């Protein structure tokens, strides 16, 4: 049940009507049942898996808080083994089986990978990281264990952010989930702005540009100019798609009186790789920093170890996005950018003047787009083919591509989307704010103008939406 379907709209109307009538613990139980129904609508078989994660981490955390010494580490290992084992089986078993079979075949022992037929549970990467953060924080002594199963289940299963984040921290979300059953409902109606803007981003923008991304699936047969336009289109498609989902999730949570974190803050206004990862998928970036990069040693132990830790973190971050080598390559690419930026800043120690910032933004946006070509290409061979054409552009083919576009009458929409990309990029550079900050500012306007903005965005989303919109891109992760 996607956020952009009529079935979800019906679900919300029924849910909010019931939620408004209930009080106390009954309201918390109703929210949990609604979250179970929402997740079960994808595939009811995986609801048991999600509930298993809730029960394991709830009881393990309680036991960890009471235990001492090796017993604490053993209990933490149970949580890690269960969560990472389930994630590894469902998401990576087929990938590693195919990779092992391919490696053996190259060594002269031809084997075929078994057909496992494993279906990936929606949202498993997101809720697994969220439950792990809770158990690890209790183990580190930074968080008291939750002693109310209902509150903890809501922390894991809160339906607005269950299947695609943001990946919330227990110290932020658990107190708010406890308040659902104990405090009056105080909806924040600025969430309507976020919901409308998220629907507009997803349906009108991300889905509208979806058709132009296809050359990245077969770069060898595409014109270089077409490939560059497809790469630029995908850069904005994935941003509008994922930030649109995050806007809707944050907006729904605000209507329930819950504040989720911002997951994006004008990422294409970044001046370098470190700045980019403080703006793009912020909840994942913070999780990888606190639960992987820092435990590996962070920037302690000299430059060589720092570079190693950066590369390992980004390689695993790439693999988190999908069980395929091109995701690993994308992670390695961003790891190399982080290493290079850190090495150059240590060597040069320059403070660039203010006028150089636009050049840095343009330069890093170019590098980001090259990375998106690796992310979107389906295979390693396609990654190589895409980069050959993106880096070694044959200008003579531009005329042939324009002639082809003229023949199929696509010049006008290409020009329109190019202007849209430029306007969206300039807007991020000039107003590098999160959607939450923009929504808060708009909600301070008089009632009529803000109502017109919300209604206009919702109307345009419905008007421009394709008849069969694709799913949110990050559902597959």
Properties at a glance:
477 residues, mainly alpha
What is this structure's SSE topology?
Blueprint lengths: L5 H16 L2 H17 L6 H20 L3 H37 L17 H16 L9 H9 L12 H11 L10 H16 L17 H32 L17 H5 L4 H15 L6 H19 L3 H24 L8 H20 L3 H12 L4 H12 L3 H20 L4 H9 L3 H18 L13
Helix pairs in contact: 1-2, 2-6, 3-4, 3-5, 3-6, 4-5, 6-7, 8-9, 8-19, 9-14, 11-12, 12-13, 13-14, 14-15
Task: Describe it.
The chain has 477 residues and is mainly alpha-helical. It folds into two domains: 19-180, no CATH class; 191-476, no CATH class. It has 19 helices and no strands. Helix 1 runs antiparallel to helix 2 (24-40). The longest helix is centred in the first third of the chain and has 37 residues, at 70-106. The mean pLDDT is 88.
Could you write a compact summary of the structure shown?
With 477 residues, the protein is mainly α.
Radius of gyration: 23 Å
Shape: globular
DSSP strand count:
0
Count of alpha and pi helical runs:
19
Low-pLDDT parts are none
Give the distance, in angstroms, between the N- and C-terminal Cα atoms: 16 Å
Percent helix among the residues? 55-70%
The H-and-E topology, N to C, reads as: HHHHHHHHHHHHHHHHHHH
């Amino acid at each position: 049940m996607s956020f952009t379907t009529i079935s979800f709209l019906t679900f919300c109307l029924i849910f909010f009507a019931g939620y408004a009538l209930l009080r106390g613990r009954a309201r918390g139980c109703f929210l949990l049942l609604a979250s179970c129904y929402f997740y079960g609508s994808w595939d009811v078989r995986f609801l048991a898996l999600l509930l298993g994660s809730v029960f394991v981490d709830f009881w393990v955390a309680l036991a960890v808080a009471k235990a001492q010494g090796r017993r604490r580490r053993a209990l933490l290992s149970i949580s890690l083994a269960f969560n990472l084992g389930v994630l590894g089986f469902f998401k990576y078993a087929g990938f590693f089986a195919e990779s092992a079979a391919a490696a053996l075949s190259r060594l002269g022992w031809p084997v075929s990978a078994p057909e496992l037929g494993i279906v990936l549970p929606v949202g498993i990467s997101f809720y697994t990281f969220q439950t792990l953060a809770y158990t690890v924080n209790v183990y580190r002594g930074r968080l008291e264990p939750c002693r109310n199963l209902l509150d903890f289940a809501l922390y894991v299963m809160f339906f607005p952010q269950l299947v695609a984040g943001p990946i919330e921290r227990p110290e932020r979300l658990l107190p708010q989930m406890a308040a659902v059953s104990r405090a009056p409902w105080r909806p924040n109606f600025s969430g309507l702005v976020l919901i409308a803007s998220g629907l507009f981003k997803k349906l009108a923008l991300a889905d509208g540009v979806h058709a132009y991304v296809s050359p990245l699936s077969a770069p060898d047969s595409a014109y270089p100019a077409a490939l560059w336009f497809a790469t630029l289109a995908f850069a904005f498609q994935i941003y509008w798609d994922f930030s649109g989902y995050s806007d809707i999730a944050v907006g729904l949570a605000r209507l329930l009186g819950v504040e989720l974190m911002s997951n994006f803050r004008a990422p294409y206004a970044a001046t370098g790789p470190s700045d980019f990862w403080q703006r793009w998928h912020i909840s994942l970036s913070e999780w990888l920093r606190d639960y992987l990069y820092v435990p590996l040693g962070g920037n302690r132990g000299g430059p060589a170890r720092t570079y190693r830790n950066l590369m390992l973190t980004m390689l695993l971050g790439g693999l988190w996005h999908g069980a395929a080598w091109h995701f690993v390559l994308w992670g390695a690419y961003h790891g190399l950018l982080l290493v290079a930026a850190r090495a150059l800043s240590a060597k040069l120690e320059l403070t660039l003047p203010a006028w150089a910032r636009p050049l840095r933004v343009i330069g890093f946006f170019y590098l980001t787009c090259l990375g998106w070509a690796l992310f979107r290409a389906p295979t390693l061979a396609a990654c190589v083919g895409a980069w050959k054409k993106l880096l070694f552009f044959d200008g003579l083919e531009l005329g042939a591509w324009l002639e082809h576009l003229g023949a199929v009458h696509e010049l006008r929409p290409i020009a329109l989307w190019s202007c849209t990309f430029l306007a969206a990029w300039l807007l991020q550079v000039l107003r590098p704010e999160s959607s939450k900050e923009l929504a808060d500012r708009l909600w301070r306007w008089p009632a009529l103008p803000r109502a017109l903005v919300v209604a206009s965005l919702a109307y345009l989303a419905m008007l421009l939406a394709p008849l069969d919109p694709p799913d949110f891109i990050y559902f597959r992760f």
